[in-house]
Amino acid sequence: MKKYNTSKNGLLKGKGFILTVTACVAVVAAAGVITYRETAKSLENQLNVTPKTTEVTPKIPSYDEIKDANKNKTGVEKETEQTTTEPQKATEIKISTAPTVRQKFCYPLAKEVINEYSGGELVKSKTLNCWKTHDGVDIKAELGDPVSAMTSGKVTKVYEDALWGVCVIIDHENGIEGHYYGLAKNVNVKPDQKVASGEVIGAVGNTAECELAEDCHLHFGVKQNGEWISPIPFIRANM
Q1: What is the DSSP string of 122-135?
Q2: Residue 58 and residue 43: Cα distance in Å, rounded?
């Protein structure tokens, strides 16, 4: 067995001392290397930590689940869903293709007008010797001249008035009324009878007591929606 020299104090010296120191340094170095590797590995693990993600697969509901969910909806939800998902139905509008028939108009008497419509202004009455409105026109005529319906319509009244004599009123539709005054007693129409445009309804008479001072004539007036209007321009505009 190889012996190493020692000093008096029991310490190695010479070659033995060197070997011992070298061995200690090697052990310390090896321990340092191991410690360094473990520390580096630990740091690497800490720095390279990748968060673990959980992949979630969406769940697709089945037909039965959707059907059950729809059953549980409230009335408001169903109404809202129907309103937002269903397109509105267009309102069907029916347009008539039948042609519009224009009524024919004519003058009750195609003769001279001797007294005009006053349009609400007061005029002097020769017969009554007073100022009053003249709500129609006086068309000059001979006794017995035929009087025609201004346009088609239905007779609403046939009567005898104390001032205006024998009168016929015809509803010409669309709010238009024709008033035929001072006719002869034997008229050709009766109430509720339909007449055509130009159809003879009677004859000129002398029955209008309030206008006897005038020349023989037909007093003719037109009302539109219950108001007197000027007869001649109205007829002319519709001929």
Answers
A1: EEEETTTTEEEE--
A2: 37
Q: Tell me the C-alpha distance between 43 and 174, whole Å.
A: 103
DSSP codes joined into one string, 157-203: EEEEETTTEEEEEEE-STTEEEEEEEE-SS-S--TT-EE-TT-EEEE
pTM above 0.70, yes or no: no
Phi, psi of 32 (to 5 degrees): -65, -40
Q: What confidence tens digit (pLDDT) does each residue in 171-186 have? A: 999 999 999 999 999 9
CA 13/CA 17 separation, integer angstroms: 5
CA 74 – CA 53 distance, rounded (Å): 39
Domain ranges within the chain, ordered by starting residue: 1-48, 113-238
pLDDT tens-place string over residues 138-153: 999 999 999 999 999 9
Q: Identify the CATH class of 113-238.
A: mainly beta
Give the number of other Cβ atoms within 10 Å of residue 217's Cβ: 25
Tokens representing 163 are 């001032």
Distances (CA, A) of 166 to 39, 160, 162, 185, 191: 133, 4, 9, 6, 14
Tell me phi and psi for residue 204, to 5 degrees.
Answer: -65, 135
What is the Cα–Cα distance from 115 to 123, expressed in whole angstroms?
A: 10
**19: nearest Cα among 2, 40, 43, 38:** 2
